[in-house]
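#lab-general

N.A. 3:47 PM
ok so I finally got the sequence cleaned up, no stray characters, all 446 residues accounted for. can someone with queue access submit it? mine expired

B.Y. 3:52 PM
send it over

N.A. 3:53 PM
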Amino acid sequence: MEAVWKKVKSAIKRRIPGHSFKMWIEPLNVSQTDPNNWVIYCPNFFSKKRVQGLYGDLIKSTIQDSMGQDCGLKFEITSKASTTVATSGGSSQLQLPTENARPCSGRFLRGDFTFDRFVVGSNNDFAYSASLALASRQETQQNALFLLSKTGMGKSHLSQAIGNHILSLYPQERVYYITAENFSNEMVQAYRHDDIDKFKSKYRRQCDVLLLEDVHYLSGKERTQIELALVLDSLFEFGKRIIFSSCYLPADIPKLSDELRSRLSYGLISTIDPPNFRTRVRILNKKLGLNGYRMPENVIQYLAGELTDDVRQLESGMNGVAAKSSLLGIPIDLNLAESVVKNIVRQRKRITIDVIKKLVCKYYNVSVEDVMSRSRKQNLVRPRQIAIYLSRHYTDAPLQSIGKSFNRYHATALHSINCIERGIKKDSSIKKQVGFFREKLESGKF
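B.Y. 4:20 PM
back already:
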């Protein structure tokens, strides 16, 4: 039966779009109550309804063609959607590998973040070459690399690609992938539990490659900065490889010690810029192939032309179009793509710093003049920080211009952004307030 089901799935895969097959047919399992009656197991009620309605006749006819005889077919719901094909003799569970997976510090490397899945264009070719050279131990004077870009441009992909490449070539290497926030939290816990010597040994003597993300988070964390500087000194001394990533240059991160700033600037600094239209088309084609999706060329061109903010937005549009097509059972065309894109694209031309100032001040019942003043009153600090954060998020103005618009230095503006980013993670009231303003701006109700 298992061989017949594989044959059936292969036949269906050739007859329906790849994304539809992946969403609806791939998760299905089967069993036989007798040679002439099949049961299709769906993961949930919604899946059962969709599969039975859209593909029931196709599945039944394909099974009959494969068996050369008529058969009965019914659909059931099971919570064991990830098990192997059931047989009359019972199902067996695959054994876990006996070898332990290589542990990473903080987070595990994503297996799909590799060099061969990274689309190279004029916006990132230098960063890609520098990353590959560092990972491959090619002749280079540099053992450190600083990847600089806005969110969603691919710096995390490149950083983890370095780790994956090193482990594939040198599996004995100890690769630590961690965010600056996780590093700081780990150090605090080490002090609390009197394990600081173990923490120091781990990073200074038991690490061959350090992948440290979002180093701007270290702003104002004096004790963590001191410890990290000492870790970096040790790694540099022994010729270990270090990869940093951040949205800001070391010189632009406020409340950073001169010692750590100089160490972050020691390596090669490589910028990743937004991809141009041709690169966005190539990114879409690459991701379509990896996900098994198929889309008309005019839809691909449309998505690449409209979704220009970052790679993450581009992927969101692609997934949205594919999902809506599958859920509604309708073909992918320009009308469908437009319905998805209009909910993604922000109306940046209409959103300005002045618009954001007036919106925030209106709902906090303060004046724009007060927010721009030098006052440190709490009822003014919070609106000012949120307005600066939103200005960075919804406009293309550089940090210096945003700071100037609020009568502040760019370092103070960056500090405000960091405060709100941390607040969103830890304070539900700040998260709610920021969410309220985001909804207003994205809906155009300002």
